[in-house]
Amino acid sequence: MSNGEDLASVEEALSQDLLRLHRESYGKGAGRARTHILDDLVICYMDDLELMAAEDFLIESGKGDAVIEVRSRYQQAIEMTFRDAVERATGRRVISFVSATKLNPNYIVEIFRLGEPRGDSLEELDDDQRG
Question: pTM for this structure?
Fold first, then answer.
């Protein structure tokens, strides 16, 4: 990330990248995403989560917990893809990752804990650019 970029544009670009990765990984997307970078945290909220037909069927059959469990396991399996996007955007290593899916309303929250800066990073932005 170059010093000329402001925090809001990095957050928006990361939102779009994570939405794209989610759509490519799951075959379905979400209506929108918002990302916030706060000190050592990156928090991405994806709203209006689109579910697959089989997931909708399971939920209607009272098996929503199975949908959450499978999504959680799948997210753990593809974690590095999402970590890589955050590391590229922030210039910092992701040291921890949490993903939570909620149903009715359908949304996902992705939380990334950042380690020390690597080269160009948010740490190098002055306070005016950080908001």
Answer: 0.82
Query: For 53-104, what is each residue's pLDDT tens digit?
Result: 999 999 999 999 999 999 999 999 999 999 999 999 999 999 999 999 999 9
Amino acid at 41: L
Helix (H) or strand (E) holding 13: helix 7-26
**H-only helix segments in the chain:** 7-26, 53-60, 64-77, 79-90, 127-130
Give residue for tokens 């697959």: 52
Rounded percentage of the chain residues whose pLDDT exceeds 70? 85
Element containing residue 92 per DSSP (H, E):
strand 92-102
What residues does each domain of the chain span? 7-120
